[in-house]
Amino acid sequence: MATTGFSFEVLPPLKGTGTSSLFKTIDTLKEFNPQSINITTHRSEFVYTEQDDGSFLRSSVRRRPGTVAVASAIMQKYDINVVPHIVVSGMTKEELEYNLLDLQFLGLSELLVLRGDKAKEDAKFKAIKNGYKYATELISQINDFNSGYFIDGSPIKSPGAPFRYGVACYPEKHEEAPNPEFDIEVLKRKQDMGAQWAITQLFYDNEKFFAFEEKARRAGVTIPIIPGIKPMAKLSQLSVLPKTFHLDLPEALANEAIKCKTDDEVKQLGIEWGVQQCRELMAHGVPRIHFYTVSAVDSIRQIASQIY
Ligand code: FAD
Description:
Bound molecules: flavin-adenine dinucleotide
């Protein structure tokens, strides 16, 4: 009987598409007894519309409903722990505070605390006015909230249950970190501030994960490090995954993927690689495997049915 936990991440469905695809994902994967379902959070995007006078009007567009609403929809239908992501990106300190209050009202007590992705139109991450630059700044705010204080320093009359939270980490280094050691220092700082677990960026090479974990342990990181896995499922991912997630595909996987002629062949390869990767991680003793579901729900079902 497997003792390694199972969890997965869903994106809020695109605006206007309803809840059916979200619920279908959960229905497909719930038989594997998920410890939690993470819900991602995405900043608003800006679109520029040309006006009659040739100028451009900048307006903010949200493509997905809010994480709080999605968490609520899942909680009403399933008896599964939900873990919303809370991101600094595009949010003011006040908005983050209201976000925490909403999540507390919903009875949620676990979060994944992140900086979030940069705005699409920016070359690099920029803090907005009255916002933050790093995830650690939001961790400080959550710690104050947990201790019963709003951001203006005034006491919370009736503080609710404190939030427990996890953070992100990067076996192949975050793209902006000057070196792997710096990135691990940041993880250690987050642990010292109160983070109770870390979930990794997706990776395909277990050796990179093992080396990262060893370095992190040597640097004093003791919290659980949970590997994040996304089965390859499309030909285009051969170049998209390294570019988007700043990772290397191991030679053995890339060589086989190059031989594939269709997405179906890549999907089959991704399942076989995923099973082998997860079995090795389980033998290594990871506490849980966290799956990224975008374009991969059926592959995850097939992997999970072989390993759990
Ligand atoms: P940070 O910890 O703030 O680090 C960002 C960079 O700054 C790193 O290079 C770090 O080394 C450096 N740094 C940190 N602190 C300092 C400091 N004090 N001084 C100098 N440099 C510093 N994105 C979303 O938009 N929504 C999501 O829901 C989402 N979910 C994710 C889930 C997981 C498990 C993972 C791994 C990533 C997720 N992301 C998500 C992507 C994530 O937001 C990006 O990778 C982002 O660029 C970094 O987030 P972070 O929390 O690691 O940032």
